[in-house]
Specification:
With 207 residues, the protein is an alpha/beta fold. It is built from 7 helices and 7 strands; from the N terminus they run H-E-H-E-H-E-E-H-E-E-H-E-H-H. The protein has a single domain, classed as Maf protein (Alpha-Beta Complex). Helix content is 35%, strand content 25%. Helix 1 packs parallel to helix 7 and helix 4 crosses helix 5.
């Protein structure tokens, strides 16, 4: 990609009208930034969970973990039933193998090398508390991503940017990661970690 993709203005406007204020049951600065860039006032309520589950399939893993975060928030003294809330968990999968955050630079290099010239999937499980119905809706969004064929110098350069630290799949498309990518099929915001289109759908259905 020659330029970093952006969240469409129309999507930001729809979200702002649907949900001017939201609770983010997460400490993710990337998710907060995506929401705030749409003009949303974000109230952060990080949840301290183990982030483990008995599932192995990507969709089931991310939905289970997002549900754990939301359930923790709903049980907490900070829970505000008048405000919508969202909890998200994002993982990357290549050939069905899940990839979380890299342990170190060597782990990050191995992940980036494995994506070279290949499609992989980004899964986000999202749990949304809808105040109008007093219920939680759980969905999963999937975006396919195709990397360029990378040289070892490409990999080394990307590791040197510092992007891989704390990033599922060891890259951040919204920073320098877009330079490694040839094509995406699906939601751009999902790759960052929160599928805004699906969030709008869930909140709009219950309005």
């Amino acid at each position: 990609m020659d330029r970093c993709p952006v969240v469409e203005i129309s999507i930001q406007e729809k979200l702002r009208k649907t949900c001017p204020v939201i609770v983010l049951a997460s400490q993710s600065p990337n998710r907060r930034k995506v929401l705030e860039s749409a003009g949303i006032r974000v109230i952060t309520r990080p949840q301290d969970i183990w982030e483990i589950c008995g599932e192995t399939e990507p969709e089931k893993v991310v939905t289970a973990l997002s549900s754990q975060k939301m359930e923790s928030y709903l049980r907490s003294p900070e829970f505000d039933p008048s405000l919508p809330a969202v909890a998200v968990d994002t993982l990357v999968a290549l050939d069905g193998k899940l990839m979380g955050k890299p342990k170190d630079d060597e782990d990050a290099k191995a992940m980036i090398r494995s994506f070279s010239g290949r499609w992989h999937e980004v899964y986000s499980g999202m749990s949304v508390y809808v105040p109008q119905s007093k219920k939680t809706v759980v969905v999963c969004d999937v975006t396919r991503v195709l990397f360029h064929s990378l040289t070892e110098s490409d990999v080394d350069w990307y590791i040197s940017t510092g992007d891989p630290e704390g990033a599922a799949g060891a890259y951040k498309i919204q920073e320098n990661g877009y330079k490694l990518i040839d094509e995406i099929d699906g939601s751009f915001s999902n790759i960052i970690g929160i599928p805004l289109e699906r969030l709008i759908e869930v909140l709009s259905e219950d309005n």
